[in-house]
Each structure stands twice: as structure tokens, then as C-alpha cells.
Write a structure and sequence with these properties.
Two copies of one chain form a homodimer. The first copy, chain A, has three domains: 89 residues, Winged helix-like DNA-binding domain superfamily/Winged helix DNA-binding domain (Arc Repressor Mutant, subunit A, Orthogonal Bundle); 201 residues, Vaccinia Virus protein VP39 (Rossmann fold, 3-Layer(aba) Sandwich), CATH 3.40.50; 43 residues, no CATH class. In chain A, the strands form three sheets. In chain A, strands 5-4-3-6-7-9-8 form a seven-stranded mixed beta sheet, with helices on both faces. In chain A, strands 11-10-12 form a three-stranded antiparallel beta sheet, with no helix packed on it. In chain A, strands 1-2 form a two-stranded antiparallel sheet. Helices cover 37% and strands 19% of the residues of chain A. By secondary structure, chain A is of the alpha/beta class. Chains A and B meet through helix 2, helix 6, helix 7, helix 11 and strand 8 of A and helix 2, helix 6, helix 7, helix 11 and strand 8 of B. Chains A, B: GO terms for molecular function: transferase activity, transferring alkyl or aryl (other than methyl) groups.
């Protein structure tokens, strides 16, 4: 049975109440100082209304907004008494429900996202489930993410689903596939299918390549690994040698241009690109779309919330995957230096020593978490906070 | 259990056999004279390999290629003895299987498309299923499609799923929605939800508007109808008055530009657009993507094979839906005359009288099927063939 709440809303809202809520919405959006403005605040309230109680992380995933933004808006909404925090997550107050039903005119609470495929449109069968289980073991052996080069590891589910999507679209069997950067280890499930003609990985991080090499040896599959800084053109023997590329580049316009352009070198005039990328504010996404279009790629498919990443609550996020088809491709490289988010928007990260609990700063004197050793001798850390440096 | 067929393929293919298949693929693509070339032929063979026996219509849906193209390639592949036609549809011959397994390196036959949501990512719940059932009754009352203005009716499932998607993304409840052309009758399920703040339809076809008005009266819902030729700017009272627009425009670049631009007039500087559009060859889709980008829309989501249409086998096809978000929108209108496909690529359609079986030509002397009356007095016709006029 459907539940309709708030039938009383329409028409019975007082003029001054409407004005009050309108001013409130404006003020929350302004205080939060976010690119998407009122729409983002509306989205957050709608997601809470439909799914309450709900964790901040889940709100971020469902609204596709960055977690720090959601946390900020949530705090402001708490202060305005629109919502309250309970043990089980955020819930709307009576005022919040009034706001949702009388002003935003929400009334229906069900989610229609397919629970079988989680909105991805494809499902794993036994063959791919088996691959996923084998990938999980290896994913645990990954080194610590080097955030200075925007590493952030996709879950084993994510990498396996990517390969399943490639299979489903005819981009796996008999194809030569290059992973342009592969900290997500998507080459692992790809190799385990035994369907591709060739699988190769270029990455700057030797640790990732070594893990892939070890995997190949143990699992008896073939993955070509090439250590390479993508700021430089691809080695000649990789040029015009692939049918398909896959990349999850740094989430900056220059990062995307560089990684996709190296991908184009590998494809030649035509080919398929799987692009995983962050749900960006409209302005930024528009310049990305322009760059993609200029390179000669069409977006033949774009699935939001396809990719999920491992890590602390702070960076837990979700990104989309797009299947691009190119026919008359041309590289378009921007500034090859400022490709990582940390270089565009410097960030300080706070890590907690898992042994003694001491908090360490990373991003100024200590550049990356890998260089961190605690006074207690602890070498394992968990990120607990992230801050942008004001320039 | 997974089935792997063709394990023997890899490595055991003779050099001359490989050359033979390569030449064959080139020659089929060339004979078919299709924009997507070899890739399209590969896609067709892969879909048959995975789903055989399979009807031509299903091949067209799964490859997203136009039905006449698929029919043409199928005929050539038959002539080349790659496939045979059985009562149950197309099947690969022994040579075809060799081609698929040894040359294209296909081996796995399962489809991973989610069978619950059919790849759309969303499902209807009881509330929306109920709406679908009510829409079905009204869809039967539609007039005959006027193909000179590119009418082609989406199924009731399609229009209901569109509205479900709008709901899921937060673009329905409390929103003012304009349908820029609505031969698909998507305004019907939208109105039946009782969730929108306002629903309006502009269309050039009085028959469609009258049906919508009759529907509104009988079902007790409110849909504003405006008869309007979109070649002219929107009436002033529709300008900057909507949050969301939805359109399934003529599948020409000028048609898309015109309909989206009128949509922008309705939205003002920012808003959401649901665009349903045909899977076009890359070159054409690239100019569409450019136009969309120039107008200021980002493609936040693009779901292939979302829309299905009613009609004879000949025009049975599938299109995608894209959710566009605009922030600093500006209209971009091209040639406002050549907006319909028939004006860009003149077509002759052949209709069969359902009473006496006589075949009639439509497109030259007789411009549209509506003007057709058979000598036997028959007034109902079924399209049986379509031909492009060579210019």
C-alpha cells in the first residue's frame, strides 16, 4: 500500500508560512556556501524525508554531493531545527516535515531505485560473482592510498561491475584493453574473465604495479604492466594499440584531459573509453563535458552512483561511470602540472595513529601519510578529518 | 553454471582463416554502407551469438541500431552464410559460430542486463503500476500517428517509467513541469501521481491536446494544454515559469535545438530537462552533444534503451533518456524549417489497407497517412515498409 502524507498541504499553506520557508531555504543555502545552492539543500531534505533515519554518508551517496558539504548543510539544518540527529541517523523534526510537505510539497516516501541491481542496470551472474570473490582477497593486499596523487580505491564490487559492464556492452571479449592508471585494480577482474585479447596497465605507482604482477603470477593470468608518468606521452609501443581504455582520473579538469588524452594515444583515431568521474558541480561538469566533446567522444551512457570507494567515512563517496565512444579522436592536454586535486585545492588531512591514538597532520611538512611514523612507533593510520587550505 | 564455448579458439586460428574473416567483416560493413561500420556488424553478430534465436526487432533493440540497418546487415550475413533464418529468428551457422568464436573471440553467452528493471535502474511500485494500468486505457484512444511531424508513440510503460524517473530524481513533487510536445502522452501518468505543482503541454497537434483534455476531465486532474507551433517562441505566460521540461523531439539536430530551446524559454536561466532521443551514429550524436553543451546543459545521466515505441515492426525502435541539468542556459536555435526527419531525409512509407490489403504509397502525392482513403472505403492502415528517397 502507498502512503500519502501531507494531502493537507496543497492550498492550505499560509502565505507568510510560505515566505518563511522560502527565506529559510535561501539562508541555509547561503550559509552553506555551496555551488549547487538551493537545489542541493532541497535534495538533502528530500533524501532525508524519504529515507529517515539516514546516515550522513548515505545522504551524500544518494544526493551525489560531497560528504563535507552534506555534513555542513546537516549542521545548519540542525541549528535551524529542521532536523535532529538520533543514534540511527538524521531525522526531520516536526518543523522539518512541515517544510518538506507544505513547502517542498513532498508526500511519497518510496524509493524506486531497483534493489536488485542497485540502479546500475546490470547484475553479476555466478561467473562474475566468483571473480568478485577472488578479487576481494587481493584487494586487501593493497598498499595505503597515496592521496597526494589522488589515489582512492574503488571497492572490489565496483571494479568487478565495471568489467561486467564492459562485457555486457561488447567491450571485453577479444578486445585489447588499457587501464590508464589502475589504483582501483580493475585489471584484476578483467584478467580473471580470460575474455580479453590483451590487458595492460600504465601507472606511476610501483607498489600498484608490483601487486598486479604478483596477482598475475599467482592467478596464472597475463597483465602487461608499464611504470609511466602520464605527464609524458605514452611509450611508442602502446600507441594506437588498444580497442578500449578505462580510467578513473584525478577529479580536476586538467587531470581528466591528461588521462583521457593518453588514452586517446593508446586508441588512435577511434575506440571506447570507460570514464569514472566524480559528480561535480554544474559549472565544473560543463567544462569537463566540453573537453570530452572537443576530444571527439560521445557520451553513449552515463550511470550515476556506479562506483563506490573504500576508506574512512570522510572520503567515502560515489562517482559515475560513462561509456564514451570516439570516432575521430584528438588529444587535448591542458596544464600537465596541476592535475591532482591537492595541487588545485591544497588540503590538510588529519590521521589518527591506530596504535596510540595520536592525531597527525599531513599535507604541509609531512606530504603524504606514507612518510608518517608515530612517536609510539605506530605505522598504521586512519584518516579522521580533511580541511582545505585557504589560499 | 557458466558455459564456455570455444575454448579451442585462441591460438589455434590459422593465419589465413583470420585474414579471411577480416576481409569478410570489411566487405559486409562496406556492402551495408552504414555509418558505424565494422563495429555495428560486430555488435549484430555478438547479439545473435548471445541471444540466438533472436528476431530482427530484438537485435535492433539490443544493438540500438535502426531496424532497416539491422535487416540489411542480416540479409548480407545470410548471403555470406554467416547466419540463417529459422522460424524462431536469426541463428549463426557453423561458419558464423567460427567467425564469432575464433575471430571476434566471443565465448560467453549470458546477458547481465538486470531482468528486474530491464536495465533502466528503476522499477515501478504498486502506486506507479496502478497509474500505468490507468494510462494504458487512454493510450488506446490515441489518433493515428502523423509521421510527417515525426509522431511515434511511446508505450504506456515508457511514459510511466519516465514519470517514475522524474519522481526518483526529485523532479516531480512540487515542481512545475512543461511537456514540449507530448504525442507520447507522458503528461497523463505525471498528472495521475498528483505530485506536481503544475503540468502543462504545448503541442501542434490538436488531436493530442483534445485527448489530453478529455483525459483530464474524466480522471479529475489538471493539465494545461496550449496549441502552439514550436517554430514560434513560447507565449509570454509560459516563459520562465517551469522547473522541469520533458521532450522527445524530432530526431534531427535542428529539431533537438528548437525543442530544447523552447524548453529553455520555459525554464529561464536554470532547470532540469528530460530528453528522449534516438541512438544516433557517432558523428550526428557528437553535433547533438555540442549543441546541448553550448546551451549550458550537463548530461547528469543517460540511460540507453529506456524508451520503447508502439507501431509496426518497421518503426519499432528504442531510444535513450537523458537527464540534463542547466544553470546558465541560453537557447540555440538552428534552421527552424528543416526540423522533421522527413524534411531532412525524405521518406516514402508503404501502408497496407487493413480492409482489402491494398498497398498505398505515402510521402509523395499523398503527404500523410491521414489523408489516405482506400478505394474499398477502408480507413485503417498498417505501415509495412519505409524507403528513403535518394536526392
Amino acid at each position: 500500500m502507498m502512503k500519502i502524507i501531507g494531502k493537507m498541504g496543497k492550498g492550505k499553506i499560509y502565505r507568510d508560512e510560505k515566505a518563511k520557508f522560502s527565506i529559510l531555504l535561501d539562508s541555509v543555502a547561503k550559509k552553506a556556501d555551496i555551488a549547487e545552492g538551493k537545489r542541493a539543500v532541497e535534495d538533502i531534505i528530500r533524501v532525508i524525508y524519504r529515507h529517515q533515519p539516514i546516515s550522513t554518508k548515505k545522504i551524500a551517496q544518494k544526493t551525489r554531493l560531497p560528504l563535507p558539504i552534506v555534513a555542513k548543510v546537516r549542521t545548519i539544518l540542525e541549528r535551524e531545527r529542521i532536523l535532529k540527529r538520533t543514534e540511527r541517523g538524521a531525522e526531520l523534526t516536526e518543523l522539518g516535515i512541515e517544510f518538506a510537505e507544505n513547502f517542498l510539497k513532498l508526500k511519497y516516501k518510496k524509493s524506486l531505485t531497483c534493489s536488485v541491481c542497485n540502479g546500475r542496470g546490470i547484475v553479476l551472474d555466478e561467473f562474475f560473482e566468483d571473480i568478485l570473490n577472488r578479487v576481494k582477497v587481493w584487494a586487501k593486499k593493497r598498499p595505503l592510498a597515496n592521496t597526494t596523487i589522488d589515489q582512492s580505491f574503488a571497492t572490489p564490487e565496483t571494479s568487478t561491475y565495471r568489467v561486467a559492464l564492459m562485457y555486457e556492452r561488447g567491450d571485453l571479449e577479444g578486445k585489447r584493453i588499457l587501464f590508464v592508471g589502475d589504483d582501483d585494480l580493475t585489471s584484476l577482474p578483467a584478467a580473471l574473465t580470460n575474455m580479453a585479447e590483451e590487458i595492460a596497465v600504465v601507472d606511476i605507482d610501483e607498489r600498484i604495479l608490483k601487486l598486479i604482477e604478483k596477482f598475475s603470477q599467482k592467478e596464472g593470468v597475463k597483465i602487461r604492466t608499464i611504470k609511466h608518468n602520464l605527464r609524458n606521452p605514452l611509450p611508442d609501443d602502446l600507441k594506437e594499440s588498444f580497442d578500449v581504455i578505462s580510467t578513473d582520473p584525478p577529479y580536476t579538469v586538467n587531470g581528466l584531459k591528461l588521462f583521457l588524452s593518453r588514452g586517446i594515444e593508446a586508441l588512435g583515431k577511434e575506440g571506447i573509453a570507460y570514464l569514472s568521474y566524480s559528480h561535480k558541480p554544474i559549472d565544473e561538469w560543463l567544462s569537463i563535458q566540453k573537453a570530452i566533446t572537443n576530444m571527439g567522444f560521445v557520451i553513449s551512457e552515463l550511470i550515476p552512483n556506479f562506483n563506490y570507494y573504500e576508506g574512512s567515512e570522510i572520503i567515502a563517496n560515489t562517482t559515475f561511470i560513462a561509456r564514451l565512444i570516439g570516432r575521430d579522436l584528438k588529444a587535448e592536454i591542458g596544464d600537465t602540472e596541476k592535475i591532482y586535486t591537492g595541487l588545485v585545492k591544497p588540503v590538510i588531512r588529519y590521521y589518527k595513529c591506530l596504535k596510540c591514538g595520536k592525531i597527525h597532520k599531513v599535507g604541509e611538512e609531512v606530504k603524504k601519510v606514507e612518510d608518517l611514523v608515530c612517536e609510539c612507533g605506530g605505522k598504521k593510520f586512519k584518516m579522521v578529518k580533511r580541511e582545505k587550505i585557504k589560499e
